[in-house]
Amino acid sequence: MSRGSLREVQDGGLALHGVIDMHVGAELRDAGRRLLAASRSSEVWIDCAAITQSSSVGLSLLLCLLRDARATGKTLQVRNLPEDMRQVAEVYGLLELLPLAD
Predict the structure, then answer these.
(1) CATH number of the structural domain spanning residue 55
(2) Which of 1, 24, 41, 91 is deepest in the core (most CB within 10 A)?
């Protein structure tokens, strides 16, 4: 399994990859904060399709990035949230907080 990563992709987007857990959560939060601040787009999206495994840290990361985007005057949309993360979000009552594209 690959270590979690976050990178900028085309058209104002970000992409999460690999395993998102407590070992990479803080690092990805810092990277996300920097990428959001540097983005020239006022509407940023994050693609989660390449997440191979995630603990609740993945959901916490998405909520933090949502807050970080708002702090910089940007909107954030979450795309391709894996089904297991969607189920956990539903159990915790977080679905209505996440700006899901699908």
Answers:
(1) 3.30.750.24
(2) 24
